[in-house]
Amino acid sequence: MQKLVVAGVSFLLALVLFAGGAAFPYQKATSTARTDAATLDATNEILEKVSKLRGLEIKRPVKSGLKSKDEIEQSVIKDLDESTTPEEFTATQKTLARLGLVARDFRLRDYVVKLLREQVAGFYEPKTQEFYLAAWVPISEQRTVMAHELMHALQDQHFNLRRFEDWPKGDSDAELAAHALIEGEATIMMYQYALDREGVRLDVTKLGSLTERMLAESDPEDASKYPLLAGAPAVLRDGLQFPYIYGAGFVQEVLKTGSWKAVDKSYSRLPASTEQIIHPERFITWDDPVKIDIADLVRSLGPGWKRVDADVNGEFGYQIALREFIGKAAVKAAAGWGGDRYLLYEDTRTGATMMAQFTTWDSVIDSVEFFDAYSERTEKRYKVKRSSDATTQKRVYDTAEGLVSIELRGGDVVIIEGAQDRQQLERLSKQVWQSKKSRR
């Protein structure tokens, strides 16, 4: 599921303006921009200030320029076409539809392009080492935003952001966690810069959770300012915001353990999961996730089926999947995540899809809680009632989109969603339970 916001929608390098002037990014882009003397002067001034606040030297100047909305949109489309194939976008859309998070006919790529045209105001490009600003917004109104993006320039100079451009496929949860480190640091520096301009030195280690503060903030004018964002499916909206909101809280906690040097070290040993971002103590104590290996299920499915997607949901992914149907209880139900993997298959003859998920949890208490939560989610998702033969270890639902099985064994939960009949379900379940687990 995280593929939506990292593989399908790479957002390492760009900037989106949201409520309160906070910065959330999106897309890397490459093309020439009109240079502007005022832009360059402001860039140099803000870069020096951010360098001092962060304690990272400027190794080289940062070129800057301006882009119009049309130029930014063209850059976004060009990058989407280069980084994400139409098949990958389609696979992500089918995964989200299988989970009930978007409609089956939702046009993911088209919506992303429109959303970014509404939101993206500028970006730093590691490939060219250039920084671009919105040509339609006065520079005086973009200074804090510039601080955020110029922090990316410093990160690039010291930690090489280009290494994040070709992340290995199949673990978008870990990729999202890496982005949260990058964007969380830039978000903190943006706020430090803004307060420094007012003569206030911000020590984030003395504050309560920045994540909780940002989650509590809301602007009633946001919906009218950004209607596409306000109307976006929650999985898209929340996924785009995660690296900033949760990343800021993560970096804040890392700072408490050893100043900015501890953050520097985090670029060598990256956070391995969104669980570690949500619960920074898991990162600090090296509580890395369990790797799950599910063998190809084509033989168990039968003729006509092909695999279209495979990835890791992670704790944040399960928060989203559950919250859509059971509300705030999803946060507690997704906590205790230890590792997972899902495979999505499609029947090329009918268009039907089947998803298999293997999840492992920190304790039996955690697995039972998730088992019950996913059962409730399933009943609400498909508007079905629990069958008379349901037990505390296994529940099977007959839905309009196929059979759904949720089975609990100790600290593990296996979910088969979309099986065509009982025989196929039995074959799939048996094979998925043979999956291998290992520490990363």
What oligomerization state is this entry in? single chain
- How is the main sheet built? 6 strands, antiparallel
Principal-axes geometry comes out as globular
The strand count comes to 13
- What is the strand content? 15-25%
Number of helices: 17
Order of helices and strands: EEHEHHHEEHHHHHHHHEHEHHEEHEEEHE
Report strand order across the widest sheet.
7-8-9-12-11-10
Helix- and strand-based class? alpha+beta
Gist of the model:
By secondary structure, the chain is of the alpha+beta class. It has 17 helices and 13 strands. Helix 6 (172-197) packs across helix 10 and helix 14 crosses helix 16 (364-382).
Question: How would you characterize this protein structure?
Answer:
With 440 residues, the chain is of the alpha+beta class. Helix content is 48%, strand content 18%. The chain is built from 17 helices and 13 strands. It has helices at residues 37-54, 69-83, 86-98, 108-119, 143-159, 172-197, 210-216, 222-225, 227-230, 234-266, 274-278, 280-284, 298-301, 314-326, 329-334, 364-382, 422-432, and strands at residues 14-17, 23-24, 63-67, 120-125, 130-134, 290-293, 305-311, 337-347, 353-361, 394-399, 402-409, 412-419, 436-439. The strands form three sheets. Strands 7-8-9-12-11-10 form a six-stranded antiparallel β-sheet, with helices on both faces. Strands 2-1-4-5-3 form a five-stranded mixed β-sheet. Strand 1 (14-17) and strand 2 form a beta hairpin. Residues 4-34 have low confidence and may be disordered.
